[in-house]
Amino acid sequence: MPRKKAAVHGFGKYDVTINTQFCVISDGYHNAFLDLCTWEGSYWLAYRRAQWHDPIPPGDVVICKSPDAYNWEEVAVIDSGGDDRDPKFITDQEGWLVVYFGTYYKRWEGKTLSNHTRDQITCGAQSRNGKVWSSPYQIYRPNYWLWSTQEGYNGYTYGMAYHHGNDYCNSLQLIFKSRKRFGVWETVGPALNANLELTDLSEPALFSLDKKNEQFCCIARSADVTLVGTSMHPYTKWIWDEYPVICHSPCVVKAQGKIFVAGRTRLDHIPGLDGEDNEKSEALKKYRNFQKSYEYEDEDHEDITAGKPKGWLSDVYKTVLFEFSLKNKDLKYLLTLPSAKDCAYPGMVYDEDTKELVIAYYSQHAYPDMEKGIPRPADIYVTRVGINDLQGDV
């Protein structure tokens, strides 16, 4: 596999550096929407492999294993029969590695709702060794997409799901399962009902703010702001704030007394890109013209992209790393990872030995120009970010 070391950057007093950057999956497919974890002494990577971003033709979930996060072995492919995407891991207390993912399937015609052509379910599967997996099974209700999980104060596994339908995905639901019950998830209650006030409410990252898991926090995507909610056990009442920065597909890791969030943002939400001012202004100018024009084009696939705004995967989006502070109500930008067009949806772990964040994500920046009608590939990268000098509290 090709390996390239990225340039090292320093960012003020934090001295956050990209120590190494490797392209680990590059096979001509659209490889995307991933997660990363450590289990049984190895790194584990799950991602969706397909011909391109959208559900037709459908994709599969690929499971890979590595001793060092650079050299990867493909060990399993999971296919539910629908379009499988956005896999996430749970390292179960009973010794299982669990993966769950969203699956699109064609809506039944005739005696059912007719406002959308597809439904979505969350599927799960588990393994004792990472190579042999159970058959996929349904988790929770249709069109509630389980996006992230966290162990709770009582030892149960909790998950934040967002309602996935044709009504702006305007609610978040907290659910839970007890130990040894892989497919049985029960309702805690609604965490947020936006009543259509917030469009594109989705991708909620659930995590704990304390060692005993008494206080949960959730960082969720919306169209123009990032939503941050907190709740104390039993997690039935939530308090929400809006942070004035875009963060799509947030992924959260706690390390060295700090909370780090990796995800996707827009160039006008990134302050002071040294040496990139011209690129930033030109890209944003193009993007705003696209928004105003309401023109459409079929960039990568004639049938599927018809009806999507021009520039919907333009170079204004980047994969970035933030520092999150609940106390200061802030998502502080730290650095930009090499990325462009369709990108982000990272997985992230902290390496205690090297004092680095290990971030896996996907991007199309290696393919700036593609002949019209040819699907644009997406590659998966692993970046090690040094945070040796960081200290502080959350």
**Low-pLDDT sequence parts:** 1-12, 290-312
Q: Which overall shape is indicated by the principal axes computed on the Cα atoms?
A: globular
What kind of sheet is the major sheet?
4 strands, antiparallel
Topology, number of strands: 24
Overall number of structural domains: 1
- Helix tally equals 1
Would you list the SSEs in sequence order as H and E? EEEEEEEEEEEEEEEEEEEHEEEEE
The CATH class assignment is: Mainly Beta
Which structural class should the secondary elements be placed in?
Answer: mainly beta
Note the gap between the termini: 38 Å
Strand order of the largest sheet: 1-24-23-22
Alpha carbon gyration radius: 20 Å
CATH architectural type: 6 Propeller
Mean pLDDT: 84
